[in-house]
Amino acid sequence: xxxxxxxxxxxxxxxxxxxxxxxxxxLVRGRTVADALVILDHVPRRAALAVKKAIESAKANATxxxxxxxxxxxxxxxxxxxxxxxxxxxPASRGRALAFQKxxxxxLVEVSGAEKPKKASVTTTEVKAETTVKAAAKPVKKESx
Length: 145
Fold this sequence. Notes:
Elements: E1 4-14, H1 18-28, H2 33-41, H3 47-65, E2 74-82, E3 86-91, E4 97-102, E5 105-114, H4 124-137
Antiparallel strand pairs: 1-5, 2-5, 3-4
Helix pairs in contact: 1-3, 2-3
């Protein structure tokens, strides 16, 4: 049985409230990466794009950097935490200013999967022998004038 590995990806400073992003994250938590991406394609919320990008980033990290098989990847952790808040003011009647906060989120995605099976290596002597056989088998083309 192949050994399981875990790979992380972060999406920091997503300009959406953590509660809204967390509701979308709850839809795909614990699923396979392929299922999660299909589900997020059909969720009609803005937060689905941010969660999908974080999952795709984790998948790319796993397949390209850690040599994991993309078909075996599952989401082990999908957490949404509060990011920094920007304090702003909105004009109100009678010259007043009402305070509000622009909230942001951090998304952490951890995926785990099995390593890709390694291909059988071919020795250099076998490669040289194959190329000489192929070269000898090719017909020689005649030049026409």
